[in-house]
Amino acid sequence: MSSLVVDKVSSRSSRSSSARALLVRAWRERWSDVQFGIRLKTILEEGGGEEKRPPGDRVGLAGILLDSALVGPAPNALVVGYLRHCLASGVVSRADTLRSLAGFDRWGRPHCSSALVGLAAEVKEGLGEGAGREDPVEVSVAFLGLLSWLLRLSANSFEALEKDRKAAEGTREAANYRRAIELARSMAETDHTQAMLLVAKSEDKDAWAKVVAGCKAMAEQVRLCQSFAPDPTALKQVRGVTNGDPTNIASVHFFF
């Protein structure tokens, strides 16, 4: 490994550590998102223009913020606010945020999952045709990863509900199930998002295979479920997705 590469890796590691330390101080002193952003800029500027990427992506800022926000049973609203500010100001990209979000799999923390569904919905709304200077292919693949994550969240929430429907009525798991499925369906309701899914399917076949597997698993859950009345329409509609057309996800209704 050349000395130049070693220096770059060392620089990124140093700035990542500095960002973590700054976050701890911001949380302790209850800085506003603007205060955090101003101080963060000083750290990120140390990296200069080494890459044509948002400065926060160079140090994995979205992952740092999400890891810190989701350490407990409920999300840290202050830290989630910092991430929203970084997204709005272009310090982190939508693609990197979605990738970091899709790595969350602590399904036993439904309040954290709920916060991520809300954040994902906000990111999705910003993915219009004029959504900044991000690589469209990279964003599309991250978008497909979000769809896969929503299906996994739905499956795990459904499993918790199916175990005890009466006790689960009105719980966070029930809300997460409905919101995740609704967001997944909405991801193919416009020509633009349908095109994104088709691009991602072509670009990342492994990610698409996970979406197909997620749809099949959900269909099987609904079919075998004892606590809910299976929806024949849902089972019919999901065949379009599992047969290879991601745009058909918009017509899937897995509600009970």
Give a description of the structure:
Helix content is 69%, strand content 0%. Helix 1 (3-29) runs antiparallel to helix 2 (33-45) and helix 7 packs antiparallel against helix 9 (172-186). It has helices spanning 3-29, 33-45, 61-69, 77-88, 94-101, 110-125, 136-163, 165-168, 172-186, 191-203, 205-224, 232-242. The chain is an all-alpha fold and 256 residues long.
Number of helices: 12
The low-confidence parts are: 1-8, 234-240
Biggest beta-sheet profile:
none
State the separation between the terminal residues, measured CA to CA: 56 Å
Q: What sort of overall outline do the alpha carbons produce when their principal axes are compared?
A: globular
List keywords for this structure.
mainly alpha, 12 helices, 256 residues
Give the gist of this structure.
The chain is an all-alpha fold and 256 residues long.
Secondary structure elements and pairings:
Elements: H1 3-29, H2 33-45, H3 61-69, H4 77-88, H5 94-101, H6 110-125, H7 136-163, H8 165-168, H9 172-186, H10 191-203, H11 205-224, H12 232-242
Helix pairs in contact: 1-2, 2-4, 3-4, 5-7, 6-7, 6-9, 7-9, 7-10, 7-11, 11-12
